[in-house]
Amino acid sequence: ADTDGDGMADDLLVFERRHAGEVLRCVFHFGVGPLDVGSADGNRWRIVERVGAGEEWILAGPAGLVAREIG
Length: 71
What we know:
Helix content: under 10%
Structural class: mainly beta
Shape: globular
Number of strands: 5
Radius of gyration: 12 Å
Strand content: over 45%
Order of helices and strands: EEEEE
Largest sheet: 5 strands, antiparallel
Number of helices: 0
């Protein structure tokens, strides 16, 4: 839930790592319910690893995923 009004779930951590032209997006949902973490630029990313419950870009927390930029 967004308790501070910034438009993002408070139980969500998202960051990117860059090295040698490769970009990985790491997404971690620490909440208890399902959360759609897909984005408008979802076609730019391919999930390469995930842990926890959920399918595709929906994380049924606690869960996480790592996606590689493809475009």
